[in-house]
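We emphasize that the prediction below concerns an isolated chain of 349 residues; any contacts that depend on oligomerization or on bound cofactors are therefore not represented. The input was used exactly as deposited, without trimming of termini.
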Amino acid sequence: MELDAVHDQARARLPRGVYDYYAGGTEAEVTLGESVTSWQRWRLRPRMLRDVSAVSMTTTLLGTPVSMPIGVAPWALQRMAHPDGEAGTARGAAAAGTLMTVSTTATVSLAEVATASAGPKWFQLYRVKDPEYTDDLVRQAAEAGYRALVMTVDLPFLGRRLRDLVNEFQLPQGIEMANHPPKQAYGERGLNQALGTIATATWTFEDVTRFAALTSMPLVVKGVLRGDDAQRCLDAGASAVWVSTHGGRQVDPAIASAIALPEIVDAVGPDVEVYADGGVRRGSDVLTALALGARAVFVGRPTIWGLAAGGADGVRDVLTELGAALELTMALCGVSDVHDVPADLVVRA
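Result of the prediction step, given as a token string:
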């Protein structure tokens, strides 16, 4: 099913406030819009007369095999979209043969998501309550078999999300942040105040070093939009960097991932895995990211729409549809393997 149709189904099923929470960005939502359109600021330069009778999309992400260079980005509060929440998303990602990144603000606990499917998972980290509790979450993730720790660094404070403020949006009855301390008082304070408890204003590059030493899981730093920051993350102990605007939900207007990606790839060099998210909706977007040097892309909202429209099967269908679109675009551009995407396949429009 086309991704636009899945989005329309999800929008029709979700309450207005819930839809706006998932769909919205911050301030004027400039970054939110440009995250999608910025991929079209690049043009593909197809190569002809290559044998593309068989196209391979399989790859590895920090050593974990996946069926395609497309993973699931972290997203909060997924039981607002479907009763199965993050457990359903985990099953859908596994059925598509790829990995899921589970948010600290998930509505299903780390352990429960881990047992929901055998598919590979990464854990996305915010600060929760205090350093000791946050460190314990990292240990829980490692014990539950998560493959990497994704340290999100672009939320020193919560961005001004006007849709949520206008809607006076609060967590629906029965929805809780399962990885937060029991009975933490956030349910009656409104969603912006609740999410404000995870802000990481005190984090510095020293915390990158600290978390890298805390666990044997490789550390990915997510939310990087500058080459100099990317290099400093690696110097501090990160294994990979993730180019992201937080779904257009933090700084606005911020540079889109599709525009920031080349600088970061150049800064860290060819031996470091770089990931990107933000506005990826088409197979051509994925192929453009690979040509710009990304190892893989991650998608957030499309998987939420899939979850809302059809649970685990909806997530699987969104991911397989995007993978099929990538496969076809690769063949049309004369590329038979995701590891052999030439940089000169794209040019700025």
